[in-house]
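Rotation project, supervised by the postdoc (A.L.). Task for the rotation student: set up a whole-complex structure prediction and record inputs and outputs verbatim in this book. Inputs entered:
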Amino acid sequence: MNNEITKLLLGVKDGTVSVDDALLELKKQPFKDIDFAKIDLHRKLRQGAAEVIFGQGKTSDQIIKIVQTMQKTGQETIIITRLDEHKAFSVQKKIKIDYRKEARIGIAGKLPKPDGIGPIVIATGGTSDIPVAEEAAVTAEALGNQVVRLYDVGVAGLHRLLSHLDEIMSASVIIAIAGMEGALASVIGGLADCPVIAVPTSVGYGAAFEGLTALLSMLNSCASGVSVVNIDNGFGAGFLASRINHVLKS
Amino acid sequence: MNNEITKLLLGVKDGTVSVDDALLELKKQPFKDIDFAKIDLHRKLRQGAAEVIFGQGKTSDQIIKIVQTMQKTGQETIIITRLDEHKAFSVQKKIKIDYRKEARIGIAGKLPKPDGIGPIVIATGGTSDIPVAEEAAVTAEALGNQVVRLYDVGVAGLHRLLSHLDEIMSASVIIAIAGMEGALASVIGGLADCPVIAVPTSVGYGAAFEGLTALLSMLNSCASGVSVVNIDNGFGAGFLASRINHVLKS
Amino acid sequence: MNNEITKLLLGVKDGTVSVDDALLELKKQPFKDIDFAKIDLHRKLRQGAAEVIFGQGKTSDQIIKIVQTMQKTGQETIIITRLDEHKAFSVQKKIKIDYRKEARIGIAGKLPKPDGIGPIVIATGGTSDIPVAEEAAVTAEALGNQVVRLYDVGVAGLHRLLSHLDEIMSASVIIAIAGMEGALASVIGGLADCPVIAVPTSVGYGAAFEGLTALLSMLNSCASGVSVVNIDNGFGAGFLASRINHVLKS
Amino acid sequence: MNNEITKLLLGVKDGTVSVDDALLELKKQPFKDIDFAKIDLHRKLRQGAAEVIFGQGKTSDQIIKIVQTMQKTGQETIIITRLDEHKAFSVQKKIKIDYRKEARIGIAGKLPKPDGIGPIVIATGGTSDIPVAEEAAVTAEALGNQVVRLYDVGVAGLHRLLSHLDEIMSASVIIAIAGMEGALASVIGGLADCPVIAVPTSVGYGAAFEGLTALLSMLNSCASGVSVVNIDNGFGAGFLASRINHVLKS
Amino acid sequence: MNNEITKLLLGVKDGTVSVDDALLELKKQPFKDIDFAKIDLHRKLRQGAAEVIFGQGKTSDQIIKIVQTMQKTGQETIIITRLDEHKAFSVQKKIKIDYRKEARIGIAGKLPKPDGIGPIVIATGGTSDIPVAEEAAVTAEALGNQVVRLYDVGVAGLHRLLSHLDEIMSASVIIAIAGMEGALASVIGGLADCPVIAVPTSVGYGAAFEGLTALLSMLNSCASGVSVVNIDNGFGAGFLASRINHVLKS
Amino acid sequence: MNNEITKLLLGVKDGTVSVDDALLELKKQPFKDIDFAKIDLHRKLRQGAAEVIFGQGKTSDQIIKIVQTMQKTGQETIIITRLDEHKAFSVQKKIKIDYRKEARIGIAGKLPKPDGIGPIVIATGGTSDIPVAEEAAVTAEALGNQVVRLYDVGVAGLHRLLSHLDEIMSASVIIAIAGMEGALASVIGGLADCPVIAVPTSVGYGAAFEGLTALLSMLNSCASGVSVVNIDNGFGAGFLASRINHVLKS
Amino acid sequence: MNNEITKLLLGVKDGTVSVDDALLELKKQPFKDIDFAKIDLHRKLRQGAAEVIFGQGKTSDQIIKIVQTMQKTGQETIIITRLDEHKAFSVQKKIKIDYRKEARIGIAGKLPKPDGIGPIVIATGGTSDIPVAEEAAVTAEALGNQVVRLYDVGVAGLHRLLSHLDEIMSASVIIAIAGMEGALASVIGGLADCPVIAVPTSVGYGAAFEGLTALLSMLNSCASGVSVVNIDNGFGAGFLASRINHVLKS
Amino acid sequence: MNNEITKLLLGVKDGTVSVDDALLELKKQPFKDIDFAKIDLHRKLRQGAAEVIFGQGKTSDQIIKIVQTMQKTGQETIIITRLDEHKAFSVQKKIKIDYRKEARIGIAGKLPKPDGIGPIVIATGGTSDIPVAEEAAVTAEALGNQVVRLYDVGVAGLHRLLSHLDEIMSASVIIAIAGMEGALASVIGGLADCPVIAVPTSVGYGAAFEGLTALLSMLNSCASGVSVVNIDNGFGAGFLASRINHVLKS
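Outputs recorded:
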């Protein structure tokens, strides 16, 4: 590439290349030889078993087309997240999908066999947090993980959580999902010795501020080994948990 | 009193009272016969054993004078809160006080004997919360309560807290003090069956926002029976706990 | 229990127990012998007369089932909070409940006789705060308390509040409910000598920020003996007031 | 002025004025004939008795020069606000000023005789609010008002405030100054029938957020006739009160 | 009243009065002799011409009843604020009211003749601010003021505002109403020499945060003589302006 | 003008002019001779090719009338922003407009030929940002600019952005539009050497806080040469970009 | 354990156990047999190689004592975090520690050999972020990880980051540390296919709000696989990264 | 490059390349051929006349070294921003710099001749905003622009601003700098027809929130053509203004 620049500058010197053209050329050089078609290939290789479509803001027709294209190129498992019931119904007329209502996820193709390091435990503080938890759970399953669900084990009834110490102790990753004051993340973080992903939810009212309180609370967890994703971001937690659970395999 | 108004209006009618004067008089009537000297008496009767002086913003001379006046009128126990070490030293030159450095409280006179319903348990999440806890503890003691201190029992090490279930179960009031994510209030609220006063502290950094996160977290506690006072307000918590602990006696 | 650990380590030594298994076992020990079935019994013993179901987010079918199960186990009084009119109508087809529309509470069974230390006074700043107040009031009644209602006694018309000094003076607990600037809590806190529970409401507009201003205002009350619960949390206030009012009996 | 524009356009037409020059000229026309020297005269006429210098951020030398210039042009009373003690000392070496330490105001010349409609009442919730109150009070006095000071009449001790109903009822304007929860504004607003200017102060700690809570609280006052100025803005309140108190005379 | 207390204490001494009863009696003394029926009379005397009903949250039946009661006691002018069109229609079936749609105010009876010190000028930044302005305007008219409307004179087109200098200069009070960045208050505050009441509106989008930006902006006005009321609080501004405009007459 | 003042003061002296009248006259002098009719002319000259009507909050009838008036006075291109589909349909019955649904802009007349310094590049992070981008794009086109659209080039897939380095390098202005974390502005700011206008959008959920996060992020861009407009303010960005792109021509 | 309860209830029946005592006993049962001394053992087993002391808020004497006790019980590596230079100097007089000034960490004993899955890459946006990065790096090293440092690779100069694609691609975990707008996390998240831990720093000024902007930005990352810890929490990031990097081994 | 990938996959097929190595290679491909040394060259070409060093957080020794290196490579003008007086003094011992105290900028070498499109006008609301303004001014001058300073022309005294209409009308870019309520940006935006860069400053107190209010206000400017940079970011404004003023030349 050095040759090119030398040539260019010689061109400037003998007048066959204008200064403006040379300047523009110089600016573009660093990124010039990138062949972006290849990127798509890499991206697929990187992201594990299933391909993910973010369903929200797309029409059912758009979703159908994307799924069909992916399937033609050999993609075996595809999940469509944030897919509401009505749109799922329309999609199902054209494509065979397994629709998980609570998770708001549609699955085209088979879920892969779990090939992660260990089980991913998903715990929620209350029953209202379950939709977020299911989004995380189905995402993790679609990316090749075994999932253990511990729902409604909030800290106001500590014994419910403590009765599941076995699951907590043998998890390779834990996703702790809670609204209101989000204390679940700290309590689990204090008990477990694996990475804990905390997901604040918009469950609560008044000074819960639609998840802000749980978010701040989880960021300040007094337990080490806890990190946080965006409010209600079940997909993000499931995706990250899978990455951790496949950390040596990617 | 109806007579007075009648008289007033007659005065207006026959011209001996101007309209302006009558108007002003009418406005003042509702509160007219209040004899405010008596209020001071009531106030003392109401507030239990010790009298409280808020030391911050007062000079040591001012504090000395107030204490001496109170003592002359027979007040046996007086506490001075938010009293820094330097000022305490100056006060001690003139008045005999027992200075509790960590609580930043000076005590003139003897602490009263506990006469509350039961013990007040004061728990903290960490060791940095202890100054706030001591402010609460000494306040409660000065107002006639037995205090049980459970310090550094944060939820990241749940076993430390659980090893004190006896104290928690036999308390008549619990004060739960924590910074960072403030989860202690929820966990104690879930274990105890007495009123829990939560005190957020400014302990923490970053997104702890000087106690705001703990405050919001405690307000959203998933456990029932928990209420909250201002950030670092150890005095307020101790005072309120004493009121609850004397609820049938006041 | 020391024996168990000794045994375990001997097993490790002679090879009959793998290191991994022993490690997992050690981690679980501290919580091992907990018999959680008993917890439910305790919980009921602790929480006084009525059992509470949080109705929001549950279907009428779910509510019916829970009530019927509770009644079979001998629970005499059950309240269902945050129960909207429509759902109450559905529930009433299967179960006999007394529906309090303003409080959004359904009551199955009889309200218990008051057995608290004294009356609980519930005061509101305006008429718009009444739904929150009724939630508190019915909750407190269901838990065995006598309730005195002082509605629309906001500080802009101080005389309305002052005309009820008798009730304020003889209360064992006061719940002060207000939106907008929430000044009611401070004024009542200054008059009363019993614990005051402040409930900010989302009443107001503009810079009331849906209850945030009242919340902050109440947390900063210049009167001692005041604590705060979440915005619009009538249930929480009623529940806590009952705990205070039964403090020596639980 | 229409002639000028006509001339200008004719110039464009016959080529003696370029399009660019004409465009620029047209843009400038609306403000062209303003004689700004006169503004200074107006400003002085408008702002009543004393002239005000904002002392903060100015050196003592700068202040001395400004005062001397003003005095030469016949200004009889000049106040310097936000003047710290140290700087006041330096100024006093060159100019005779009456320094009010608590108000942080220096006064050059005599205070004018009160010529307002009635007395301005300045009330504070606590003793820590007094510096702000004094800034308001001295400002108002310097602008020709009689001031009545009611300090430390916060709502936690309602009787202190009620014992001054006479003053409240006969004020033409009231300035209510408080930190913490700022309830004083609402209570005074409910008692008085004159305009009330509320000044939040940064007094308080924790969730007082350096005056934000008092500010929001005062903006949401349930009493009518209350408006608010910036946190700790004693000068602004005193200035506005004087304007109201001279409303028919300006 | 001293006699009563003496008597009470003697009763305690000779055993005819129990200590508890005496204590309660002492607490109630300060407010004992207040005859609150009189308050209503005072309130009416204080608040000038029209009586105000806050329509929001009241049914049309409730409104009708309140108006009829007021009219029976001789009230000539009554305004109902925050009255939506639909409810106004229902009210009009029973009572003759003049409904001002833009102001969302219904007027029963005649508007009084203006008797204030001078005209109240009401200026808005844009046309979207007009509903808030009309609420202020009709309120002020109903309370006996002459109102001058200057709508859509925002600072982005300074000439529109400057062309009304006459009105601005001869006002006794100005109400400056604006959303977005709220700069109108500062510009008018710099031009006028009468009190300026700033009303932030929720007009705007994005970082206008439903009026918060305008509110903060107005509180920080670099012009003196400006104070602020709550977001969209047209009524409050009109009411306060009237108080200022009648300051010598109340 | 000095003469006028002299005359005025002489009038005061000999009694033919009252002091009040003279005072008012003096106050008005500085702005007296402004002929505001001319302003309208200037304004039109300044704002380039098309005239802009803000459609939101205006009825279709109002819009039609304004357009017709503008067209009569010779305005060739008029755009109506924030025009929803339904209203556009009504307007089209009376006036011929080209309605761009995604941009929510109606165009009356022809778009002008681009006469700016160079192309304006408009880039978005995702597909959900396109409506804001189209508002910017059509605005810029209507004001005489060539627009290059680079949509869905968010930083999570850097290669998509890098494959358009040519366009980025040859732009005279770039508008970077993104929601969520708004990182696009910084990355483009680091690559480009022309002015970059960042537009945060309300795209995202949870802690995106309806555009606040993107807004703050863009304001703190570590790249120089970036400035920010309000959330979702596509029009503002397009308008400003055009001003920059015509900077030597206005 | 069921036997115990049976016994207890029989005791209640025949009167040898009071109801109060039985009630208390029942409440304590669930947690009764926990032997908490064992917990300490577990904790040590769980937390991998080095033991961590949080130095802030502890005196050098306290630190020395804790280290000496740990060393006696056989702990080979101990790190002291948040240890300022002055205190480190005092500690070094008694104990041999390797003090890393930039990381503010003291190390007693040898750093362990890396035994994690792969290298941990630590990247910073600027040079001011290095102290936080070093805290993370030394923590990770002390817990048995190989660390690769990529400092000052902020997105404003994308080529600096892209020149390290090799390191990014072969990492098992990446810690992305940035202040200001925090865009680094998104760009790295889009390039890498391993878990990314984002650490917002308080670097920046104005609307960076001491790390809040970077925090919000990182939580909203458009790239998947990113989670966030508290502002400036280098230790937490290093600790979590180590947990992920040892996920199969703990 | 397609060949390389083909070769790579063939290697995988015949076993000479491991799957892991091939995977890593594929991931790196897209960015492989970038020659980053060239970037530095581009960067210099892009950024116009002077090179900028951010002085804050650098020692005087570091600054000296960077300047000397730059000078050796032929850089004629170098500015050092955020350079405090003390550090400037140290630098001056080794390098000849012209230190502008108010702007906190040191200049090594000569300022270039202005070669921009027109003058850049820099206006401030008050005198306290001048340091930020000078940072902008010196930056712009160092980058080859003519600067016109209009200081202390805040909107509370509109005539001061209006007397400079000539300068405003003939500017190619305007930088409007103000704290408090930041109204200056809107007023200038309404008068000018060139791009306006608004810089909020941290000047003010109370609800100015260290520049936040001015920032929000400026983002919501009702005038078109205004964009905003970070609080107190004088450098950023000067840099951007220069880019705009050289838009056709870069």
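Student's summary: The longest strand of chain F covers residues 173-178.
Supervisor addendum: The two ends of chain F are 33 Å apart (CA to CA).
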